[in-house]
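Dear colleague,

Following up on Tuesday's group meeting, I ran the structure prediction for the two-component complex that the binding team flagged. I've pasted the input sequences exactly as they went in, so you can double-check that nothing got truncated or mislabelled along the way. The structure tokens for the whole assembly follow below. Feel free to forward this to whoever is handling the docking comparison.

Inputs:
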Amino acid sequence: MKKLEETTFAIVGLGLIGGSYAKALKNLKVKRIIGMNRNPVVALMAKDEGYITDICEADGKLLKEADVIINALYPKAFLEFVEQQVQNFKADVLLTDVMGIKADFPQQVDAILKPGMDFVSGHPMAGREGKGYGQSAAEIFNNANYIVIKREGNKPENVAFLKELAMAFGCKRVVELTTKEHDAIIAYTSNLPHIMAVSLVNSDSMHDNTKYFIAGSFRDATRVADINAALWKDLFLLNKANVRAEIAKLQAQLTKWDKALENGDEKLIVQMMEDAKHKREDLFNAKNFR
Amino acid sequence: MKKLEETTFAIVGLGLIGGSYAKALKNLKVKRIIGMNRNPVVALMAKDEGYITDICEADGKLLKEADVIINALYPKAFLEFVEQQVQNFKADVLLTDVMGIKADFPQQVDAILKPGMDFVSGHPMAGREGKGYGQSAAEIFNNANYIVIKREGNKPENVAFLKELAMAFGCKRVVELTTKEHDAIIAYTSNLPHIMAVSLVNSDSMHDNTKYFIAGSFRDATRVADINAALWKDLFLLNKANVRAEIAKLQAQLTKWDKALENGDEKLIVQMMEDAKHKREDLFNAKNFR
């Protein structure tokens, strides 16, 4: 396996996640970090701050130098990028992505790549509110889980390289999934909490004076209501069937609450809370979670 | 108005909230802090730690010394306490509570109190996960909002005293509400987020491997799923009509999401997220919120 200090990386899209990869890679003292960004000011800033060593222009010529290309663009822009730039990729490039939705992107990318090039898909279970390079930080990887989509045809050494890279970033664990498993699980653990936060804030009960009656529970429940709408619109729509199934399951729980309240069913109400308490304890016990 | 250093307080129920009052009162160097607790071990511990100066036994005799009684019992136990101990209250006692539900408790308490005694209801918009004295902390008041239920018949000097006490604890603001306003607002800002957290954890999508796919959004959305079930069961049921109305409004938002996804309505999806972003920014801007 290639050593990190001998590996040249290219990061395409220096937003919150792409910028975080640049910062984490710099910590690892990799050979070079090439940055490519639609808005040249951001790339200049990243270079000025020392998180990228070189700026790749729109012609993509510098991509030829990259052993590993990390694509941190929005889902739709990702495919366009591969189509436009594949002629500039190294013959044995390892291409990876950070997309929170997989759908049939891996197969679509495979169809564009030339033999010898390898797309190993994945992403860190990490992020934060807001968007853009200014929000990026190497620390988002600390103790996070990292998902790798292992597919038939991937070169084992590339899968191993990506897994080691994630652990070197400070991730706690790498988990392998199929694209289908990934999208179903993410609909529950990531897409749904975001929709819940937005829905709570958008409730008809929100008024000008609501701010005077808020404590920790409301603050936490709405933290991720401030998200990058343009990106998440794609994540939700590309994962539509799974997301709708999760909304339905949540609604079933809420309906259960409504009926229990209507019936004054003290036993069921206590049981729902006790169940949740134990399930959450299991989720977040020290061995399982950061 | 009575000075704090000349005022004797009694705290009934040394749990998470009662214990926090004891700790905050100690910081203020009040004259005496009498503690009363069903489980005597907790009262002994609080006295040993110096957060209460005296222990009131079940006979309630020591309550006679208290200028201010802070009742931090569960809603139903509160009424029983007032009925059983009213003969031990000072003739001009200021009685207050910390209950997250008001319903018709104030009128019920008034009916038990003797003329000259005054019940000024209220509570801090504060709390934390878990339960019990061990979780208590003076810091829960820091920058919190404090609600005072101002009713006809309350002595203005007592209302003023309670408001000053809340600010002395480190609260950011005191807001006055009627009981009806209180319960409707709390159903949205407190009851509903707790039900959402429990519902998310209890979804049929929860599996043994869910823990590997969790990031900040799920963690935050479920933080308050670990609550005191016996207490919250009462809070929910005593506020049943308001809580059910809030569940319905949330369901309406979720259904709006479901339809937008079904129809692939990109514009509506982006708009919902943008709306939520702006509403939340307004809620939590520095001027409004801790």
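Residues 9 and 68 of chain B are 5 Å apart (CA to CA).

Cheers,
M.
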